[in-house]
Design brief:
mainly alpha; Arc Repressor Mutant, subunit A; Hypothetical protein af1432; globular; 540 residues
Length: 540
Amino acid sequence: MADPAAGAAEETDPVQLAELVAALSLAADLASGVTLEHGLRTCLLAARLAGRAGLGQADRREVYYVALLRSIGCTSDSAEQAALFGDEIAARAELNLAAHLPTRAVLGVLIRHASAGAGAGAGADASPARRAAAVGRVLAAGPKMPRAVGTAHCAAAERLGARLGLDGGVPATLGALFERWDGKGFPAGRSGEDIPAAARFTQVAYDALLLHEHAGGDSGDGAAAAGRVAAAAGTLYDPAVAGLLTAADVAETAGLLAPWDDALAAEPGGPTPLSGEQLDQACQAAADFADLKSPWLLGHSRAVAELAEAAAWRAGLTGAEVARLRRAALLHDLGRVAVPSGVWNRPGPLRAAEREQARLHPYHTERALGRSPRLAPLGDLAGAHHERLDGSGYHRGSKAGQLTTAARLLAAADCYQGRTEARPHRAALPPEAAAADLEAQVRAGRLDADAVRAVLSAVGQRGPGRDPSARPVLPGGLSPREAQVLGLLARGRSSRQIAAELGITQKTAGHHIQHIYAKLGVSTRATAALFALEHGLLRA
Protein backbone atom coordinates (compact mmCIF):
# COMPACT_ATOMS: atom_id res chain seq x y z
CA MET A 1 0.00 0.00 0.00
CA ALA A 2 3.02 2.30 0.13
CA ASP A 3 3.44 4.85 -2.62
CA PRO A 4 6.70 4.39 -4.54
CA ALA A 5 6.09 7.63 -6.42
CA ALA A 6 6.24 9.77 -3.30
CA GLY A 7 9.98 10.30 -3.53
CA ALA A 8 9.96 11.35 -7.18
CA ALA A 9 7.23 13.90 -6.48
CA GLU A 10 9.22 15.21 -3.55
CA GLU A 11 12.33 15.75 -5.69
CA THR A 12 10.52 17.57 -8.52
CA ASP A 13 8.23 19.61 -6.28
CA PRO A 14 10.04 20.21 -2.98
CA VAL A 15 8.41 21.68 0.09
CA GLN A 16 8.99 25.41 0.40
CA LEU A 17 10.33 26.97 3.60
CA ALA A 18 7.38 29.36 3.79
CA GLU A 19 4.92 26.45 3.62
CA LEU A 20 6.36 24.71 6.64
CA VAL A 21 6.75 27.96 8.59
CA ALA A 22 3.15 28.93 7.75
CA ALA A 23 1.94 25.51 8.92
CA LEU A 24 3.77 26.07 12.21
CA SER A 25 2.13 29.48 12.39
CA LEU A 26 -1.30 27.83 12.18
CA ALA A 27 -0.38 25.42 14.98
CA ALA A 28 0.91 28.30 17.10
CA ASP A 29 -2.39 30.12 16.58
CA LEU A 30 -4.23 27.14 18.05
CA ALA A 31 -1.88 27.09 21.05
CA SER A 32 -1.99 30.84 21.66
CA GLY A 33 -5.70 31.43 22.01
CA VAL A 34 -6.02 33.48 18.82
CA THR A 35 -8.17 32.66 15.82
CA LEU A 36 -6.74 30.33 13.20
CA GLU A 37 -4.81 32.26 10.51
CA HIS A 38 -4.06 35.19 12.81
CA GLY A 39 -0.35 34.59 12.19
CA LEU A 40 -0.85 34.59 8.42
CA ARG A 41 -2.76 37.86 8.58
CA THR A 42 -0.12 39.34 10.87
CA CYS A 43 2.48 38.44 8.25
CA LEU A 44 0.50 40.08 5.47
CA LEU A 45 -0.20 43.27 7.42
CA ALA A 46 3.40 43.58 8.64
CA ALA A 47 4.64 43.02 5.07
CA ARG A 48 2.27 45.70 3.79
CA LEU A 49 3.57 48.23 6.32
CA ALA A 50 7.20 47.28 5.61
CA GLY A 51 6.63 47.87 1.91
CA ARG A 52 5.02 51.22 2.63
CA ALA A 53 8.03 52.17 4.75
CA GLY A 54 10.32 51.52 1.77
CA LEU A 55 12.28 48.64 3.32
CA GLY A 56 14.52 46.68 0.97
CA GLN A 57 13.86 43.10 -0.02
CA ALA A 58 16.16 41.55 2.60
CA ASP A 59 14.56 43.57 5.40
CA ARG A 60 11.05 42.83 4.15
CA ARG A 61 11.89 39.13 4.07
CA GLU A 62 12.97 39.39 7.70
CA VAL A 63 9.66 41.07 8.58
CA TYR A 64 7.80 38.34 6.69
CA TYR A 65 9.30 35.41 8.60
CA VAL A 66 9.37 37.11 12.00
CA ALA A 67 5.68 37.92 11.68
CA LEU A 68 4.82 34.36 10.63
CA LEU A 69 6.67 32.99 13.65
CA ARG A 70 5.55 35.58 16.16
CA SER A 71 4.01 32.90 18.45
CA ILE A 72 6.46 30.03 17.89
CA GLY A 73 7.64 30.26 21.52
CA CYS A 74 4.16 29.72 22.91
CA THR A 75 4.74 26.11 24.03
CA SER A 76 7.79 27.05 26.09
CA ASP A 77 5.84 27.71 29.30
CA SER A 78 2.59 25.85 28.63
CA ALA A 79 3.11 23.51 31.58
CA GLU A 80 3.81 26.38 33.98
CA GLN A 81 0.79 28.32 32.75
CA ALA A 82 -1.43 25.24 32.97
CA ALA A 83 -0.36 24.76 36.59
CA LEU A 84 -1.79 28.22 37.30
CA PHE A 85 -4.86 28.26 35.08
CA GLY A 86 -5.71 24.68 34.11
CA ASP A 87 -6.60 25.77 30.56
CA GLU A 88 -3.71 28.03 29.62
CA ILE A 89 -5.05 28.53 26.08
CA ALA A 90 -8.28 30.08 27.37
CA ALA A 91 -6.29 32.34 29.69
CA ARG A 92 -3.98 33.42 26.87
CA ALA A 93 -6.98 34.34 24.70
CA GLU A 94 -7.70 37.16 27.16
CA LEU A 95 -4.15 37.97 28.23
CA ASN A 96 -2.75 38.43 24.72
CA LEU A 97 -3.81 42.08 24.94
CA ALA A 98 -2.88 42.59 28.59
CA ALA A 99 -0.78 45.64 27.69
CA HIS A 100 -3.97 47.37 26.50
CA LEU A 101 -6.02 46.49 29.59
CA PRO A 102 -6.19 48.41 32.86
CA THR A 103 -4.58 46.67 35.84
CA ARG A 104 -7.97 45.94 37.38
CA ALA A 105 -9.14 44.14 34.24
CA VAL A 106 -5.95 42.06 34.08
CA LEU A 107 -6.42 41.04 37.72
CA GLY A 108 -9.99 40.03 36.91
CA VAL A 109 -8.78 37.79 34.08
CA LEU A 110 -6.15 36.19 36.30
CA ILE A 111 -8.58 35.54 39.12
CA ARG A 112 -11.30 34.17 36.86
CA HIS A 113 -9.03 31.71 35.10
CA ALA A 114 -7.26 30.67 38.30
CA SER A 115 -10.64 29.97 39.89
CA ALA A 116 -11.76 27.93 36.88
CA GLY A 117 -8.46 26.05 36.86
CA ALA A 118 -8.89 25.12 40.52
CA GLY A 119 -11.89 23.00 39.57
CA ALA A 120 -10.21 21.33 36.60
CA GLY A 121 -8.80 18.50 38.64
CA ALA A 122 -11.80 17.92 40.85
CA GLY A 123 -14.84 18.70 38.77
CA ALA A 124 -16.62 22.04 38.64
CA ASP A 125 -17.33 21.97 42.38
CA ALA A 126 -13.88 22.77 43.72
CA SER A 127 -14.04 23.87 47.34
CA PRO A 128 -13.81 27.58 48.21
CA ALA A 129 -10.49 26.84 49.92
CA ARG A 130 -9.10 25.23 46.78
CA ARG A 131 -10.22 28.15 44.65
CA ALA A 132 -8.78 30.64 47.08
CA ALA A 133 -5.45 28.81 47.07
CA ALA A 134 -5.40 28.83 43.25
CA VAL A 135 -6.13 32.55 43.14
CA GLY A 136 -3.40 33.15 45.72
CA ARG A 137 -0.84 31.31 43.58
CA VAL A 138 -1.76 33.34 40.51
CA LEU A 139 -1.69 36.67 42.33
CA ALA A 140 1.69 35.79 43.83
CA ALA A 141 3.04 34.98 40.37
CA GLY A 142 1.27 37.91 38.71
CA PRO A 143 3.92 40.66 39.09
CA LYS A 144 6.63 38.37 37.71
CA MET A 145 4.46 36.82 34.99
CA PRO A 146 5.07 39.29 32.11
CA ARG A 147 8.85 38.94 32.43
CA ALA A 148 8.67 35.17 32.83
CA VAL A 149 6.37 34.77 29.82
CA GLY A 150 8.33 37.16 27.61
CA THR A 151 11.68 35.60 28.49
CA ALA A 152 10.49 32.01 27.96
CA HIS A 153 8.71 32.72 24.67
CA CYS A 154 11.55 34.78 23.20
CA ALA A 155 14.31 32.35 24.17
CA ALA A 156 12.49 29.35 22.71
CA ALA A 157 11.46 31.26 19.58
CA GLU A 158 15.04 32.36 18.91
CA ARG A 159 16.38 28.82 19.24
CA LEU A 160 13.63 27.23 17.13
CA GLY A 161 13.92 29.95 14.48
CA ALA A 162 17.61 29.21 14.03
CA ARG A 163 16.90 25.51 13.65
CA LEU A 164 14.29 26.13 10.96
CA GLY A 165 17.12 27.37 8.76
CA LEU A 166 16.02 31.02 8.73
CA ASP A 167 18.81 33.35 7.69
CA GLY A 168 19.66 36.97 8.40
CA GLY A 169 18.51 38.43 11.69
CA VAL A 170 15.28 36.44 11.98
CA PRO A 171 16.26 34.24 14.95
CA ALA A 172 17.68 37.13 16.98
CA THR A 173 14.65 39.28 16.19
CA LEU A 174 12.34 36.54 17.45
CA GLY A 175 14.08 37.07 20.78
CA ALA A 176 12.91 40.70 20.88
CA LEU A 177 9.20 40.42 20.14
CA PHE A 178 8.13 41.23 23.71
CA GLU A 179 10.21 44.39 23.97
CA ARG A 180 8.51 47.82 24.02
CA TRP A 181 9.42 51.13 22.44
CA ASP A 182 9.60 52.76 25.89
CA GLY A 183 12.02 50.13 27.24
CA LYS A 184 9.53 48.53 29.62
CA GLY A 185 9.33 45.22 27.74
CA PHE A 186 11.13 41.90 28.02
CA PRO A 187 13.45 40.04 28.13
CA ALA A 188 16.22 42.66 27.85
CA GLY A 189 14.40 45.98 28.28
CA ARG A 190 15.56 47.24 24.89
CA SER A 191 14.00 50.48 23.70
CA GLY A 192 13.52 52.58 20.60
CA GLU A 193 15.52 51.65 17.55
CA ASP A 194 17.57 49.16 19.57
CA ILE A 195 14.60 46.86 18.97
CA PRO A 196 15.02 45.20 15.53
CA ALA A 197 12.80 46.72 12.86
CA ALA A 198 11.13 43.42 12.01
CA ALA A 199 9.98 43.09 15.63
CA ARG A 200 8.52 46.61 15.57
CA PHE A 201 6.49 45.95 12.41
CA THR A 202 5.30 42.62 13.78
CA GLN A 203 4.17 44.13 17.09
CA VAL A 204 1.97 46.70 15.38
CA ALA A 205 0.44 44.20 12.94
CA TYR A 206 -0.19 41.44 15.51
CA ASP A 207 -1.84 43.72 18.06
CA ALA A 208 -3.83 45.76 15.53
CA LEU A 209 -5.54 42.62 14.26
CA LEU A 210 -6.18 41.37 17.79
CA LEU A 211 -7.66 44.71 18.82
CA HIS A 212 -9.87 44.66 15.72
CA GLU A 213 -11.07 41.16 16.52
CA HIS A 214 -11.78 41.95 20.16
CA ALA A 215 -13.77 44.99 19.08
CA GLY A 216 -16.08 42.80 16.98
CA GLY A 217 -14.00 43.21 13.87
CA ASP A 218 -16.07 41.14 11.45
CA SER A 219 -18.22 44.16 10.70
CA GLY A 220 -15.86 46.94 11.77
CA ASP A 221 -13.89 49.31 9.57
CA GLY A 222 -10.65 48.99 11.53
CA ALA A 223 -10.79 52.53 12.87
CA ALA A 224 -11.03 51.51 16.53
CA ALA A 225 -8.03 49.20 16.31
CA ALA A 226 -5.95 51.71 14.36
CA GLY A 227 -6.86 54.38 16.90
CA ARG A 228 -5.73 52.26 19.85
CA VAL A 229 -2.44 51.49 18.15
CA ALA A 230 -1.93 55.20 17.47
CA ALA A 231 -2.68 55.97 21.12
CA ALA A 232 0.06 53.56 22.22
CA ALA A 233 2.66 54.95 19.80
CA GLY A 234 5.74 55.97 21.74
CA THR A 235 5.04 53.56 24.59
CA LEU A 236 4.25 50.12 23.19
CA TYR A 237 5.02 50.81 19.54
CA ASP A 238 7.46 52.59 17.28
CA PRO A 239 5.66 55.86 16.40
CA ALA A 240 6.93 55.70 12.81
CA VAL A 241 5.52 52.20 12.26
CA ALA A 242 2.28 52.94 14.09
CA GLY A 243 1.89 56.05 11.93
CA LEU A 244 1.90 53.93 8.77
CA LEU A 245 -1.16 51.93 9.88
CA THR A 246 -4.59 52.89 8.57
CA ALA A 247 -8.06 51.66 9.42
CA ALA A 248 -8.35 50.28 5.89
CA ASP A 249 -5.17 48.21 6.38
CA VAL A 250 -6.69 46.51 9.40
CA ALA A 251 -10.11 45.91 7.89
CA GLU A 252 -8.82 44.65 4.55
CA THR A 253 -6.29 42.27 6.10
CA ALA A 254 -8.81 40.94 8.60
CA GLY A 255 -11.31 40.35 5.81
CA LEU A 256 -9.06 38.29 3.52
CA LEU A 257 -10.73 35.06 2.45
CA ALA A 258 -7.58 33.12 1.48
CA PRO A 259 -4.74 34.31 3.74
CA TRP A 260 -2.77 31.09 3.18
CA ASP A 261 -2.46 31.66 -0.56
CA ASP A 262 -1.90 35.36 -0.09
CA ALA A 263 0.82 34.80 2.51
CA LEU A 264 2.76 32.32 0.37
CA ALA A 265 2.54 34.62 -2.63
CA ALA A 266 3.83 37.54 -0.56
CA GLU A 267 7.24 36.04 0.32
CA PRO A 268 9.84 38.69 -0.57
CA GLY A 269 12.34 37.30 -3.04
CA GLY A 270 10.16 34.37 -3.97
CA PRO A 271 9.91 30.85 -2.57
CA THR A 272 12.79 29.03 -0.91
CA PRO A 273 12.79 25.26 -1.61
CA LEU A 274 14.00 22.95 1.15
CA SER A 275 16.42 20.13 0.35
CA GLY A 276 15.73 16.76 1.90
CA GLU A 277 18.19 17.39 4.73
CA GLN A 278 16.85 20.89 5.35
CA LEU A 279 13.30 19.54 5.47
CA ASP A 280 14.35 16.88 7.98
CA GLN A 281 15.93 19.51 10.21
CA ALA A 282 12.89 21.77 9.98
CA CYS A 283 10.55 18.88 10.80
CA GLN A 284 12.73 18.04 13.79
CA ALA A 285 12.41 21.64 15.05
CA ALA A 286 8.63 21.37 14.60
CA ALA A 287 8.68 18.12 16.60
CA ASP A 288 10.44 19.82 19.50
CA PHE A 289 8.01 22.76 19.33
CA ALA A 290 5.16 20.28 19.78
CA ASP A 291 6.82 18.22 22.50
CA LEU A 292 7.56 21.31 24.61
CA LYS A 293 3.83 21.36 25.26
CA SER A 294 4.32 19.05 28.24
CA PRO A 295 7.40 17.88 30.17
CA TRP A 296 5.94 14.36 29.90
CA LEU A 297 6.20 14.47 26.10
CA LEU A 298 9.75 15.74 25.62
CA GLY A 299 11.58 13.70 22.98
CA HIS A 300 8.54 11.59 22.13
CA SER A 301 8.23 12.73 18.50
CA ARG A 302 11.95 12.26 17.81
CA ALA A 303 11.87 8.77 19.31
CA VAL A 304 8.78 7.75 17.33
CA ALA A 305 10.41 8.99 14.12
CA GLU A 306 13.59 7.03 14.80
CA LEU A 307 11.67 3.87 15.59
CA ALA A 308 9.27 4.21 12.64
CA GLU A 309 12.19 4.76 10.27
CA ALA A 310 14.02 1.67 11.53
CA ALA A 311 10.85 -0.40 11.26
CA ALA A 312 10.16 0.90 7.75
CA TRP A 313 13.50 -0.35 6.45
CA ARG A 314 12.75 -3.77 7.95
CA ALA A 315 9.31 -3.74 6.32
CA GLY A 316 10.86 -3.22 2.88
CA LEU A 317 9.73 0.33 2.15
CA THR A 318 11.66 2.32 -0.45
CA GLY A 319 14.00 5.13 0.51
CA ALA A 320 11.45 7.77 -0.52
CA GLU A 321 8.72 6.06 1.51
CA VAL A 322 10.99 5.82 4.54
CA ALA A 323 11.80 9.55 4.31
CA ARG A 324 8.11 10.41 4.09
CA LEU A 325 7.30 8.25 7.10
CA ARG A 326 10.17 9.73 9.13
CA ARG A 327 8.96 13.28 8.48
CA ALA A 328 5.33 12.43 9.19
CA ALA A 329 6.42 10.80 12.45
CA LEU A 330 8.30 13.94 13.46
CA LEU A 331 5.15 15.99 12.78
CA HIS A 332 2.57 13.50 14.09
CA ASP A 333 1.94 15.27 17.41
CA LEU A 334 1.92 18.83 16.12
CA GLY A 335 -1.79 19.01 16.92
CA ARG A 336 -1.12 18.40 20.62
CA VAL A 337 -0.38 22.10 20.98
CA ALA A 338 -4.07 22.88 20.36
CA VAL A 339 -5.09 20.96 23.52
CA PRO A 340 -4.61 22.61 26.94
CA SER A 341 -1.53 21.36 28.76
CA GLY A 342 -3.71 20.63 31.77
CA VAL A 343 -5.13 17.71 29.78
CA TRP A 344 -1.72 16.21 28.99
CA ASN A 345 -0.46 16.79 32.54
CA ARG A 346 -3.52 15.44 34.36
CA PRO A 347 -2.46 12.78 36.91
CA GLY A 348 -5.71 10.82 36.81
CA PRO A 349 -8.22 9.56 34.23
CA LEU A 350 -9.47 12.15 31.77
CA ARG A 351 -13.05 13.30 31.99
CA ALA A 352 -15.28 12.88 28.92
CA ALA A 353 -14.73 16.42 27.62
CA GLU A 354 -10.97 16.11 28.10
CA ARG A 355 -10.90 12.79 26.26
CA GLU A 356 -12.62 14.42 23.31
CA GLN A 357 -10.07 17.23 23.33
CA ALA A 358 -7.21 14.72 23.39
CA ARG A 359 -8.75 12.60 20.61
CA LEU A 360 -8.85 15.63 18.32
CA HIS A 361 -5.10 16.25 18.32
CA PRO A 362 -4.48 14.18 15.13
CA TYR A 363 -7.18 16.26 13.44
CA HIS A 364 -5.39 19.45 14.45
CA THR A 365 -2.16 18.04 13.00
CA GLU A 366 -3.88 17.49 9.66
CA ARG A 367 -5.50 20.90 9.90
CA ALA A 368 -2.17 22.68 10.25
CA LEU A 369 -0.43 20.72 7.47
CA GLY A 370 -3.36 20.28 5.10
CA ARG A 371 -3.35 23.78 3.59
CA SER A 372 -0.23 22.99 1.58
CA PRO A 373 -0.55 20.46 -1.26
CA ARG A 374 3.07 19.44 -0.61
CA LEU A 375 2.63 19.02 3.16
CA ALA A 376 -0.86 17.51 3.05
CA PRO A 377 0.42 13.95 2.33
CA LEU A 378 2.59 14.20 5.46
CA GLY A 379 -0.43 15.49 7.36
CA ASP A 380 -2.64 12.63 6.18
CA LEU A 381 -0.08 10.07 7.34
CA ALA A 382 0.70 11.89 10.59
CA GLY A 383 -3.00 12.21 11.37
CA ALA A 384 -3.44 8.43 11.17
CA HIS A 385 -1.16 7.53 14.08
CA HIS A 386 -4.06 6.66 16.40
CA GLU A 387 -6.12 4.76 13.81
CA ARG A 388 -6.66 1.04 14.32
CA LEU A 389 -7.43 -1.79 11.90
CA ASP A 390 -10.81 -2.54 13.49
CA GLY A 391 -12.04 1.06 13.24
CA SER A 392 -11.75 1.70 16.97
CA GLY A 393 -9.07 4.38 16.60
CA TYR A 394 -9.36 8.13 16.05
CA HIS A 395 -9.89 10.69 14.71
CA ARG A 396 -11.32 9.27 11.48
CA GLY A 397 -12.24 5.80 12.69
CA SER A 398 -10.48 4.32 9.65
CA LYS A 399 -10.45 0.56 9.11
CA ALA A 400 -7.83 -1.82 7.72
CA GLY A 401 -8.57 -1.18 4.05
CA GLN A 402 -7.98 2.53 4.49
CA LEU A 403 -4.63 2.28 6.28
CA THR A 404 -1.39 2.15 4.29
CA THR A 405 1.67 0.20 5.32
CA ALA A 406 3.28 3.45 6.46
CA ALA A 407 0.25 4.35 8.59
CA ARG A 408 0.32 0.91 10.22
CA LEU A 409 4.02 1.26 10.99
CA LEU A 410 3.53 4.73 12.46
CA ALA A 411 0.68 3.52 14.67
CA ALA A 412 2.75 0.63 16.00
CA ALA A 413 5.84 2.80 16.57
CA ASP A 414 3.84 5.49 18.38
CA CYS A 415 2.06 2.89 20.50
CA TYR A 416 5.29 1.15 21.57
CA GLN A 417 7.14 4.38 22.27
CA GLY A 418 4.26 5.81 24.28
CA ARG A 419 4.01 2.68 26.42
CA THR A 420 7.70 2.88 27.33
CA GLU A 421 7.46 6.51 28.43
CA ALA A 422 6.12 7.66 31.80
CA ARG A 423 2.90 9.64 31.85
CA PRO A 424 1.32 11.61 34.71
CA HIS A 425 -1.14 8.79 35.43
CA ARG A 426 1.21 5.80 35.05
CA ALA A 427 4.80 4.66 35.09
CA ALA A 428 6.68 3.66 31.94
CA LEU A 429 6.28 0.03 30.93
CA PRO A 430 9.41 -2.11 30.63
CA PRO A 431 10.23 -2.99 27.01
CA GLU A 432 9.03 -6.58 27.45
CA ALA A 433 5.68 -5.46 28.83
CA ALA A 434 5.26 -2.89 26.05
CA ALA A 435 6.01 -5.60 23.46
CA ALA A 436 3.44 -7.90 25.08
CA ASP A 437 0.87 -5.10 24.94
CA LEU A 438 1.44 -4.60 21.21
CA GLU A 439 1.17 -8.33 20.57
CA ALA A 440 -2.12 -8.40 22.48
CA GLN A 441 -3.41 -5.60 20.24
CA VAL A 442 -2.44 -7.64 17.19
CA ARG A 443 -4.50 -10.58 18.51
CA ALA A 444 -7.42 -8.21 19.14
CA GLY A 445 -7.26 -7.01 15.52
CA ARG A 446 -6.23 -3.46 16.34
CA LEU A 447 -2.60 -3.31 15.21
CA ASP A 448 -1.06 -4.85 12.10
CA ALA A 449 1.01 -7.99 12.78
CA ASP A 450 3.71 -7.20 10.22
CA ALA A 451 4.04 -3.61 11.44
CA VAL A 452 4.35 -4.73 15.05
CA ARG A 453 6.91 -7.36 14.05
CA ALA A 454 9.00 -4.71 12.26
CA VAL A 455 8.81 -2.32 15.23
CA LEU A 456 9.75 -4.98 17.76
CA SER A 457 12.56 -6.13 15.52
CA ALA A 458 13.87 -2.57 15.37
CA VAL A 459 13.64 -2.24 19.14
CA GLY A 460 15.47 -5.52 19.66
CA GLN A 461 18.54 -4.54 17.67
CA ARG A 462 21.54 -3.62 19.75
CA GLY A 463 24.32 -1.38 18.59
CA PRO A 464 27.99 -2.31 18.77
CA GLY A 465 29.34 -2.69 22.27
CA ARG A 466 31.57 -0.08 23.85
CA ASP A 467 34.16 -0.09 26.55
CA PRO A 468 32.18 0.20 29.81
CA SER A 469 35.12 2.03 31.40
CA ALA A 470 35.01 4.79 28.78
CA ARG A 471 33.39 7.98 30.02
CA PRO A 472 31.04 9.65 27.53
CA VAL A 473 31.94 13.14 26.37
CA LEU A 474 28.91 15.24 27.15
CA PRO A 475 27.95 18.41 25.22
CA GLY A 476 28.21 21.85 26.75
CA GLY A 477 30.89 20.76 29.18
CA LEU A 478 28.29 19.06 31.36
CA SER A 479 29.33 16.55 33.97
CA PRO A 480 27.45 13.23 34.15
CA ARG A 481 25.60 14.46 37.26
CA GLU A 482 24.67 17.72 35.53
CA ALA A 483 23.35 15.72 32.59
CA GLN A 484 21.13 13.79 35.02
CA VAL A 485 19.90 17.01 36.59
CA LEU A 486 19.27 18.53 33.15
CA GLY A 487 17.15 15.55 32.13
CA LEU A 488 14.95 15.95 35.22
CA LEU A 489 14.82 19.73 34.91
CA ALA A 490 13.74 19.45 31.28
CA ARG A 491 10.86 17.24 32.36
CA GLY A 492 9.58 19.88 34.72
CA ARG A 493 10.97 18.66 38.03
CA SER A 494 11.57 21.29 40.72
CA SER A 495 14.88 21.49 42.58
CA ARG A 496 13.22 19.76 45.52
CA GLN A 497 11.99 16.90 43.31
CA ILE A 498 15.39 16.60 41.61
CA ALA A 499 17.07 16.38 45.00
CA ALA A 500 14.69 13.63 46.12
CA GLU A 501 15.13 11.58 42.93
CA LEU A 502 18.94 11.80 42.94
CA GLY A 503 19.46 11.55 46.69
CA ILE A 504 21.13 14.95 47.03
CA THR A 505 20.24 18.07 48.99
CA GLN A 506 17.96 20.70 47.48
CA LYS A 507 20.78 23.24 47.79
CA THR A 508 23.09 20.98 45.77
CA ALA A 509 20.39 20.49 43.14
CA GLY A 510 20.00 24.27 42.93
CA HIS A 511 23.75 24.71 42.44
CA HIS A 512 23.70 22.12 39.63
CA ILE A 513 20.85 23.99 37.92
CA GLN A 514 22.73 27.29 38.12
CA HIS A 515 25.86 25.68 36.67
CA ILE A 516 23.85 24.09 33.86
CA TYR A 517 22.26 27.41 32.90
CA ALA A 518 25.65 29.11 32.95
CA LYS A 519 27.38 26.40 30.87
CA LEU A 520 24.61 26.25 28.27
CA GLY A 521 24.04 30.01 28.12
CA VAL A 522 20.29 29.65 28.75
CA SER A 523 17.95 31.13 31.34
CA THR A 524 14.69 29.15 31.10
CA ARG A 525 13.60 25.56 31.55
CA ALA A 526 12.29 25.44 27.98
CA THR A 527 15.59 26.42 26.36
CA ALA A 528 17.44 23.98 28.62
CA ALA A 529 14.96 21.32 27.47
CA LEU A 530 15.58 22.22 23.82
CA PHE A 531 19.34 21.82 24.37
CA ALA A 532 18.72 18.40 25.93
CA LEU A 533 16.55 17.37 22.98
CA GLU A 534 19.02 18.61 20.39
CA HIS A 535 21.88 16.66 21.99
CA GLY A 536 20.05 13.43 22.79
CA LEU A 537 20.28 13.87 26.57
CA LEU A 538 16.71 12.72 27.30
CA ARG A 539 17.23 9.13 26.29
CA ALA A 540 16.94 6.57 29.02
